């Protein structure tokens, strides 16, 4: 795992891509250079449509879509809440649903180690770039230490190119949130429970759900966590 490679050459390789197929080929070459199991660029848009390229087995990619795992994947949920790269081992996999997903992934050839880089673009666009491998924790920590900075730069090249040749997938500019929607999302971002938010705003939880769903729709978010992350990234709320 890991080898000396020419970062400039890799970036030039990515710069010359103009289709998803070419991006997929570049991902394969990078995977082989790094001598790791898998590389994935994953973009889920506001409509829930998934787009990107991966070296995961086709069976796992199909299984992931079939089960709509993107809605409960600890990697996606965790990265929505962060702006820095995430080591999978530091995420919360304790829940029953998360454990089921993880076991399913391992059975489909996904490695036990992962390093995902959150990517944010115009209009609240959110994507992930992930490297994945099977090895012990110490070996993975050394790999990330050596290649982490280069991977961040490579990840942003993947995202920039995807935005260039998939312009129709770029999120529409969000409609402005109402004052009540801003209040609701802000309090949730501060860690308040829904019951606490409803009490603070002197509204019922049913009315709160209406505000949250309206804000989520305007932001093109997949769920409440995504809505909070998008509102924060756009400066629509301040916590």
Topology:
Blueprint: H1 7-15, H2 20-34, E1 38-44, E2 50-54, H3 58-66, H4 74-80, E3 86-87, H5 96-107, E4 113-120, E5 126-133, H6 137-165, H7 179-189, H8 194-201, H9 205-219, H10 224-233
Antiparallel strand pairs: 1-2, 1-5, 3-4, 4-5
How would you describe this protein?
Helices cover about 50% and strands about 15% of the residues. The protein has about 240 residues and is α+β, with helices and mostly antiparallel strands. It has two domains: about 5-170, Beta-Lactamase (2-Layer Sandwich); about 180-235, Winged helix-like DNA-binding domain superfamily/Winged helix DNA-binding domain (Arc Repressor Mutant, subunit A), CATH 1.10.10. Strand 1 and strand 2 (about 50-55) form a beta hairpin. Helix 7 (about 180-190) packs across helix 10 (about 225-235) and helix 9 (about 205-220) crosses helix 10. The longest helix is centred in the middle third of the chain and has 29 residues, at about 135-165.
CATH superfamily placement of the largest domain: Transcription factor LuxR-like, autoinducer-binding domain
CATH class of the largest domain: Alpha Beta
Strand percentage: 5-15%
Write down the overall mean pLDDT.
88
For the record, the count of structural domains works out to 2
In sequence order, what are the helices and strands, one letter per element? HHEEHHEHEEHHHHH
Structural class: alpha+beta
Largest sheet: 5 strands, antiparallel
The number of strands is 5
CATH topology of the largest domain: Beta-Lactamase
The side-by-side strand order for the widest beta sheet comes to 2-1-5-4-3
Number of helices: 10
Shape by Cα distribution: globular
End-to-end distance: 41 Å
């Amino acid at each position: 795992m890991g080898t000396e490679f020419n970062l400039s050459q890799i970036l030039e390789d990515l710069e010359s891509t103009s289709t998803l197929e070419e991006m997929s080929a570049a991902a394969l070459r990078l995977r082989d250079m790094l001598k790791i199991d898998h590389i994935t660029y994953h973009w889920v848009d506001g409509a829930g449509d998934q787009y990107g390229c991966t070296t995961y087995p086709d069976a796992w990619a199909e299984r992931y879509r079939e089960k709509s795992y993107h809605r409960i994947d600890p990697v996606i949920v965790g990265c929505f809440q962060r702006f820095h790269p995430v080591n999978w081992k530091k995420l919360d996999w304790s829940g029953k649903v998360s454990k089921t997903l993880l076991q399913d992934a391992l059975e489909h050839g996904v490695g036990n180690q992962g390093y995902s880089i959150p990517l944010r673009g115009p209009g609240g666009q959110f994507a992930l770039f992930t490297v994945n491998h099977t090895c012990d924790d110490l070996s993975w920590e050394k790999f990330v230490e050596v290649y982490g900075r280069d991977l961040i730069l490579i990840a942003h090249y993947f995202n920039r190119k995807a935005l260039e040749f998939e312009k129709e997938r770029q999120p529409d500019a969000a409609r402005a949130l109402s004052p009540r929607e801003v209040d609701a999302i802000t309090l949730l971002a501060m860690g308040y429970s829904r019951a606490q938010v409803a009490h603070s705003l002197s509204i019922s939880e049913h009315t709160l759900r209406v505000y949250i769903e309206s804000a989520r729709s305007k932001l093109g978010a997949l769920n409440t966590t995504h809505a909070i992350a998008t509102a924060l990234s756009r400066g629509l709320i301040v916590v």
